[in-house]
Amino acid sequence: MDLHVQASRPPTGFVADTMLGRLARWLRMLGYDTAYDKSIADDLLIERALREERWLLTSDGYLAQRRILRGRHTLITSNHLDGQLGQLRHDLHLSLDPSGQRPFRCATCNVVLRPIAPREAIPLVPLYVAQHYDHFAQCPCCRHVYWPGTHWVAIVGRLAAIRQGDSSLPR
Ligand SMILES: [Zn+2]
Questions:
Q1: Contact status, residue 108 vs residue 115, Cβ threshold 8 Å
Q2: What is the whole-number distance in angstroms between the Cα of residue 151 and the centre of ligand 1?
Q3: 3-class state of residue 79 by DSSP
Q4: Which of 4, 28, 83, 97 is least surrounded, with the fewest CB atoms within 10 Å of its CB?
Q5: Does residue 140 carry a pLDDT above 80?
Q6: Coil, helix or strand for 29?
Q7: pLDDT at residue 11 above 90?
Q8: How sure is the predictor about 10, in pLDDT bands with cuts at 50, 70 and 90?
Q9: Domain spans in the chain, listed from the N-terminal domain onward
Q10: DSSP assignment of 114-164, as one string?
Q11: How far, in Å, from the CA of 114 to the mean position of ligand 1?
């Protein structure tokens, strides 16, 4: 086994600190398993990262210095979402391409969405949406229904702009 190659593979599971809730939601929409609890204490956050073998994302320089993490963390340096995602793309070679290599996750629950038939979705979405969309997915946890509407188009566009900002990297 080539350990160097294995070590350079992007992490598949993350845990984000309490300051990074927005980043956590976007990573989930990109399909990355991202644990987030807005009120978790630092020690419990580290414990969870180690127990569940999640890569810690933190904006806290003191937290990032904790030796117990053994380097399995990224110190997020930007206060802005675009900069944060761009940093993960650069530092971890994380793909910001949402075109379906990974199953989409609920932004709120971090649970993989399941596709549902239009007849199941119609009673749960606004009339306009029911009339104009054919593809729906539902969170099995909170039951929220997702569809590829204008909000999703805006998300896809924003991610494309971040990728173009550093086109020397993979998508
Ligand atoms: Zn949910």
A1: no
A2: 17
A3: coil
A4: 4
A5: yes
A6: helix
A7: no
A8: low
A9: 3-102, 114-159
A10: EEE-HHHHGGGS-HHHHHH---EEE-TTT--EE---HHHHHHHHHHHHHHH
A11: 11
For 64, the enclosing helix (H) or strand (E) is helix 61-64
The residue type found at 95 is: S
pTM for this entry: 0.89
CA of 140 to the centre of ligand 1 (A): 7
Task: Tell me the CATH number for domain 3-102.
Answer: 3.40.50
Q: What is residue 3's predicted lDDT score, i.e. its pLDDT?
A: 41
Taking the C-alpha atoms of residue 49 and residue 83, their distance in angstroms, rounded to an integer, is 23
Place of tokens 């949402």: 98
How many other β-carbons are positioned within 10 Å of the β-carbon of residue 132? 10
109 CA to middle of ligand 1, Å?
Answer: 4
Q: How far is the CA of 107 from the centre of ligand 1 (A)?
A: 7
Q: Phi and psi for 170 in degrees, rounded to 5?
A: -65, 160
